[in-house]
Amino acid sequence: MEARGLLKELLEMPGGDQILKCIQCGTCTGSCPMAQAMDYGPRRLFAMAKGGDFHEVFKANTYWICASCYFCTVRCPRGIKITDIMYALKRMAVARGYAPRERSVYIYQAFKETVEEYGRLSEAKMMQKYLKKSPLDAVKNASLGLKLLLKRRMELKVRPVKDPAAFKAMLTKARELAREGEAPAGSSGLCGIKGDIL
Ligand code: SF4
Ligand code: SF4
């Protein structure tokens, strides 16, 4: 399918048409805790999709890395539901046989384990877990990690929720409901991924 057809398909998907409102300000990528592990941040990915470069869009790991934390969405000055666009692009990629690369699964696992342990995201802890699972990336990203630390874009201090045990109990209950089919679609696990990864 040609670029124009693929763009039309994206625009017709839930939330997909919002990509046209993007002004390329970069707030999303600047806010994204996972950006350093992405081939392209959301801003650049959206520019490529709008420009019809879907071959590169489908090859990118961006939406597999996206942890659905919604930081970008709450900060976008155009009110774009960025996470919805991520889901739309992911669905299009899957329909064309693009699968996540192994390291994408590792970052999902690192995100999940961090949130399960502390009740909220700690970027430093998540990256620590991710790099343990994928040590080659540690070498590749060491200088980037240092830069983020120096610019205070990555906090070393972990700030758990007040009652991590209660949070874990809530997660267990949510999983039970998902298994019983009572949970709403897409809530079967953290960041919209299935229980076998979680
Ligand atoms: S924050 Fe919103 S408007 Fe800015 S680049 Fe990202 S999607 Fe586009
Ligand atoms: S929802 Fe995805 S793209 Fe947006 S800030 Fe979170 S990880 Fe980054």
Characterise this structure.
The chain has helices at residues 3-12, 27-31, 42-50, 54-59, 62-65, 71-75, 82-95, 102-118, 123-133, 135-150, 164-179. By secondary structure, the chain is mainly α. Helix 8 (102-118) packs across helix 9. The structure holds iron/sulfur cluster (SF4) (2 copies). Residues 22-28, 42-43, 46, 76-78, 80, 82 line the site of one iron/sulfur cluster.
Blueprint (SSEs and pairs):
Blueprint: H1 3-12, H2 27-31, H3 42-50, H4 54-59, H5 62-65, H6 71-75, H7 82-95, H8 102-118, H9 123-133, H10 135-150, H11 164-179
Helix pairs in contact: 8-9, 9-10
What is the CATH fold-level name of the largest domain? Fumarate Reductase Iron-sulfur Protein, Chain B, domain 2
Number of strands: 0
How much helix, percentage-wise, in residues?
A: 55-70%
> How many distinct folded domains?
2
CATH class of the largest domain: Mainly Alpha
CATH architecture of the largest domain: Orthogonal Bundle
H/I helix tally = 11
The CATH superfamily of the largest domain bears the name: Alpha-helical ferredoxin
Q: Report Rg.
A: 17 Å
Helix-and-strand structural type = mainly alpha
Low-confidence parts: 183-198
Averaging pLDDT over every residue, what do you get?
Answer: 83
Small ligands present: iron/sulfur cluster
* Cα distance spanning the termini: 35 Å
Along the chain, the helix and strand elements come as HHHHHHHHHHH
User: Which percent band covers the strand fraction?
Assistant: under 5%
Largest sheet: none
Overall spatial form: globular
